[in-house]
Amino acid sequence: MYKPILLSLLLIAPAFGQTMYKCPNAAGVVNFQQMPCTPQGGGETIHIKTSPTGTGAGLSDAAKAYLEERDKARQQAVSATSPSRSGEVEKECMDMKRRIMQLEEREARGIHTWSKHGYEESHYRKQEYETLCGAW
Predict the structure, then answer these.
(1) Is residue 71 part of a domain?
(2) Mean pLDDT score of the chain, rounded to an integer?
(3) Domain that holds residue 35
(4) Long-range Cβ pairs for the range 89-94 (8 Å, 24+)
(5) How, if at all, do strands 44-47 and 19-24 pair?
(6) Which of 33, 50, 83, 123 has the least CB density, counted as fewest CB within 10 Å?
């Protein structure tokens, strides 16, 4: 019952780069351990390689180049979505915001205006504003 747990713990240990020993017993069960099987050093020696560390460690040069290109493209896409808006778009955003605020004031007084989509017009206009101008 404990052997699978012990084996899994021993398989985790190779991440540190160690020498392991494969020790079969008289019943034919194989145990893996960090110490030699006998004081004289019996058992099969297994050298475990350390696992690569760091960003992209263990990847081929082609894979690293692909990941770098993908990161550059992602950064360019982010910078392209938030450039300074032109004066016309900025003015339109301000006009839309002003209109939304007027509609909300009317709704607060109990005067409701419904859009053709079944929402209160202020709700519909906020969706348009977020599409054109970004977050409210």
Answers:
(1) no
(2) 77
(3) 2-47
(4) 89/132, 89/133, 92/132, 92/133, 93/129, 93/132, 93/133
(5) antiparallel
(6) 83
**Cβ distance 122 to 107 under 8 Å?**
yes
pTM over 0.70: no
Q: How many whole angstroms separate alpha carbon 21 and alpha carbon 70?
A: 43
Residue 45, H or E segment: strand 44-47
Q: Is residue 76 part of a domain?
A: no
Q: With respect to residue 74, please indicate whether it lies within any of the assigned structural domains.
A: no
What confidence tens digit (pLDDT) does each residue in 2-14 have? 566 655 655 555 4
Residue 11 located in a structural domain: yes
d(CA 29, CA 7): 12
Number of domains present in the structure of the chain: 2
Q: Which of 48, 51, 26 is nearest to 37 (CA)?
A: 26
C-alpha pair distances (Å), 88 with each of 14, 45, 94, 100, 126: 62, 74, 10, 18, 19
